[in-house]
Fold this sequence. Notes:
By secondary structure, this protein is an alpha/beta fold. The protein has four helices and six strands; from the N terminus they run H-E-E-H-E-H-E-H-E-E. A six-stranded mixed β-sheet has the order 4-3-1-2-5-6, with helices on both faces. Strand 5 and strand 6 (173-177) form a beta hairpin. Helix 2 (81-95) packs across helix 4 (136-154). It is elongated and about 65 Å long.
Amino acid sequence: MAGRNDELARDATWCEEEQEVGRSEIRQTAATTAITVRHNFESAHRLPQLGGKCHNLHGHSWWVEATVAGEAGTDGIVVEFQDLKSYLRQWIDGNLDHGAMLGSEDELVPALKAADSKVFVFGEADPSFGLSWPTVENVAELLGRVTAGYLRSRRWPGVRVSRVVVRETHVNAAEVSW
């Protein structure tokens, strides 16, 4: 038992010495801090180019995690969390929630628009330009672009989107990292 106590005492002394050395190093190097905004939404989509079950219009309970990273300021804040959270949630709710996500070439787009249904058309314009179909991968990329655009508009220095995870079911997800 005495041997174990001696080992713990050495470890405690080493930790104290490392903390003293580390304090000055912490002040000299900037740490990257990340924050994550989570949100969920309900939306239909279809992927007729894939065939199979996904050819049909079907819905999911989508879950989003958008992570931004940067150096915390002297106030300990990377971004104004409430601002980012509010913006991202409002964008998702206004554009995707309780609507349909379709590709620009999808023959259902005109019919759903004529029926005054909420439709987000992928590939039609920014921020989805170049993303042809609403795959889970493209939804993650889209939400990364939306988040990055907001960061640019706020001019938070050195803050960037580091990853976006989108789950279309509890077992299927896509992650985009930068």
